[in-house]
Specification:
Keywords: Dioxygenase, Iron, Metal-binding, Oxidoreductase. 23% of the residues lie in helices and 25% in strands.
Length: 286
């Protein structure tokens, strides 16, 4: 069932919404994220997020504390166990290219280039529902982020593939990364086709950065089906590819999307700061 936020008239709050793709991604004007949000603005932003799945705010001048204050309007903040953070602002996680490359070398398995489409914290039984990301150090050229409309990825599957995926569970294995950081958590499996509780949309939801495997199938069939999912994620007509510039903040619904960071900037020490938003279980299958 649609929530009150999903039917809210965002224009009444003074927001200007400029879609970047027909079903996913929109730039938002009319709000200063350095200032506290009114109830009306908070409801309008959440309504826009449910519709467009990822929102982009340009020309924002905010620091870590203001970023955290904005994110906290939408739920409790989650401290990730493996990403670098300032002890004074533990909810703010540094997403740094150099550290990511070093980290991946230690994992014990290699991700195929260009295929690490993922959603954050899917290794948890109840993943974080939203994320707020802002630029800290950007290359002059390159470093885009791609978000995929995971509902449209499902809807454009063939009827045969929908039937083969329905009811199946896929593993999200973050154990090697957690062990490197001295943490422990079991391997979790989520349904590949999930239902978004607030919008009712069906979501095609696989994390290709965490050694996915479909349970109850031979490995060959699991690989075949996962290749079909990955082929969907790579379709340009299902994506919003966003170019960063100084003063940008992105806010996305982690339940409705997968994303991919494009690493085409060489050794430049690109860095962004991310905040994850936790919530009560919002999936109909939990």
């Amino acid at each position: 069932m649609a929530s009150t936020a999903s039917t809210f008239d965002v224009s009444s709050a003074g927001l200007v919404i400029r879609p970047v793709q027909p079903t996913i991604g929109a730039e938002v004007e009319g709000v200063d994220l350095s200032r506290p949000l009114t109830d009306e603005l908070r409801t309008a932003i959440r309504a826009a997020l449910l519709k467009w799945k990822v929102l982009f705010f340009r020309d924002q001048s905010i620091d870590d504390a203001q970023q955290a204050a904005f994110a906290a309007n939408f739920g409790p903040l989650y401290t990730h166990p493996t990403t670098r953070h300032d002890p004074a602002n533990k909810e703010v996680h540094a997403i740094a290219a150099r550290e990511d490359r070093e980290y991946e070398k230690k994992l014990g398995y290699k991700l195929r280039a260009g295929e690490a489409y993922h959603t954050d914290t899917s290794w948890r039984l109840v993943p974080t529902w939203g994320a707020v990301l802002r630029d800290v150090n950007l290359p002059e050229v390159g470093g885009d982020t791609i978000w995929v409309d995971a509902n449209l990825a499902y809807e454009t599957l063939s009827p045969e593939l929908k039937a083969r995926l329905e009811g199946r569970h896929v593993t999200h294995n973050f154990v090697p990364a957690l062990e490197l950081s001295g943490h422990d958590y079991p391997i979790v499996a989520h349904r590949i086709v999930r239902t978004h509780r607030e919008t009712g949309q069906k979501i095609l939801w696989v994390n290709f950065s965490q050694q996915p495997q479909i349970l109850g199938l031979e490995l060959s069939e699991s690989r075949e089906l996962l290749e079909e999912v990955l082929r969907q994620y790579k379709r340009p007509d299902l994506q919003a590819r966003f170019s960063w510039r100084p003063g940008t903040v992105a806010f996305w619904d982690n339940r409705a999307t997968v994303h991919f960071a494009v690493r085409n900037y060489g050794d430049f020490p690109r860095e962004l700061h991310r905040i994850l938003i936790a919530d009560e279980p919002l999936w109909t299958d939990l």
